[in-house]
Amino acid sequence: MTAAGRPRWVNLNTLLGVFWLLAALLFLFHLVPNHIEEPPMVQNPLQSPRWLPSVAGWLVALLSLALIVEGCLRPPVRDPDAAEGGAPAWRWLLMLAGFAAYWLLFEPLGATAAGILGTLLLFAAHPVRRPWLYLLAIALPWLVSLLFVHVLNVPMPSGTLWD
Fold it and tell me: How many angstroms separate the most distant Cα atoms in the chain?
C-alpha cells in the first residue's frame, strides 16, 4: 500500500499501460486480420500489407507491458511544486510548434529536415539538460528516414524547397 491508502499498482503509468495493451491486442487480433486483406500472390511475409502494422502493434504491446511493469515496481512520485502551476504556456506553444513544423513542413522541407526541426522543438519544450542529447534530435529522424527509404522501400519526400 502507498501513503495515499491505495495499492501500489494503482497509478497513471499502470493504467495507461493496461489501456494501450488492450488497444494493441484489439489492433493485432481484430483490426489487422479482419480489415487488411492478404493478396494471394504474396510469397514473402515481409511483402504482406499486414507485416508493418503487425510489427507496430507488437511494439506497442511490448512497450505497454514495460509501462505496466514499471508502474508496478516504481510508481511515479508526484512533485507537489510542479503540480501546482502545471506546465508553463511556452512549453505548450513549443510542443504545438513542433507538431505544426512536422505536419506543415513535411512536404516542403522533406521528411528528414521536418523530423529534425520537430524533434528539436520537442526537446526544447522539455528541459533536456545535456547538450549531447540534442544529437539524438538529428540522428533519430535521419535514421528513421534511411530505414523507410532503404530498408522498407517506402518513398519519403525529399523536400520541394530544395528543388
Answer: 62
Q: How many CB atoms lie within 10 A of CB 24?
A: 20
At residue 55 the predicted structure's pLDDT band, cuts being 50, 70 and 90, is very high
Residues 6+ apart with CB under 8 A from 160: 107, 108
CA–CA separation, 67 vs 53, rounded Å? 21
Tell me what the mean pLDDT of segment 116-143 comes to: 89
Sequence-distant (≥ 6) Cβ neighbours of residue 53 within 8 angstroms: 27, 32, 36
Element (H, E) at 23: helix 12-26
User: By the 8 A CB rule, do 109 and 163 touch?
Assistant: no
pTM of the model: 0.62
Q: What burial class does residue 128 get, using C-beta atoms within 10 Å of its C-beta: 0-12 exposed, 13-18 middle, 19+ buried?
A: middle
Q: How far apart are CA 68 and CA 51, in angstroms?
A: 26
Secondary structure of residue 105 in the 3-state scheme: coil
